[in-house]
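Lay summary. Proteins are chains of building blocks that fold into shapes, and those shapes determine what they do. In this project we predict the shape from the chain. Here is one chain we studied, written as its sequence of building blocks.
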Amino acid sequence: MDAKTITKYLLAYAIMGSIFGSCNIPQTIADLLTPVPEVEYCLTEEAPTSFELATSFSCENILIDASHGGTSWWHPQLPETGFVPCEDHEGKKFARFLRESGFRVDEVPRGHQITDELLQNYYIIFRTSGFRAYDDTELQAYSNALADGKALIMIAEHREDSTEDKLATTTGLNYHGYVNGELRDFTEHDLTAGIYRFEIVKGSEIIDVPPDMDVLGTMYDRPVMGVMPFSNSKVLFLSDIYVLKKVQQPFIQNLINWMLQCPFR
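And here is the predicted shape, written in a compact code that computers can read:
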């Protein structure tokens, strides 16, 4: 099936979805094609078996901070066996897609300390969730990175207890609760262009929306997605990680275009 035919199929499915509502619409081109083999990153004899840091800065350097999350990124890998980016885990499909799109992607293992040195050579930082608290040194490292103009994608998950995600609150964000279902209510923005729907699975809602935040998506009048300036940078909030792990298009391509707007070029 060639690219022109695939585009026609996707357009037809999108029109059907807008007319008939929820149905089994392919979310990505990958749903219509045989999966692309793993990129050379994981096929060479030098494939990384542990976490490696970028040694110089680039706008195409992405850090996945999965150091303080639960199982949403690294499952089924465990601390006892180590966290290996080329082995199967929940976030592998998304990381592979980013690498195939031309980015360098480094994935921080659970339990790793966040420092200035770790963050300094990355323009884009994904924080996958914040179940384990960041200490003051780590929070300061994030503050320094944002002051330096690094972009942060803050990914939440359901939070039904009284614990606080201190990294989120340092940026003026507070989220809580449990949100699950189909997100269809979007605000017009480059990040939401062409999107009809995507799934929220075990997410949270934004509490007390910051005054300078553009709310990009709501479910049952509850804000679950937004973007805002912070310090010298920009912060994107996502209610949960499902849309990334499933590489749901066109959102992922919109996100890539947003990430490529790097002021350091």
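What the prediction tells us: The helical segments are 3-20, 92-100, 116-119, 136-147, 166-170, 242-245, 251-259.
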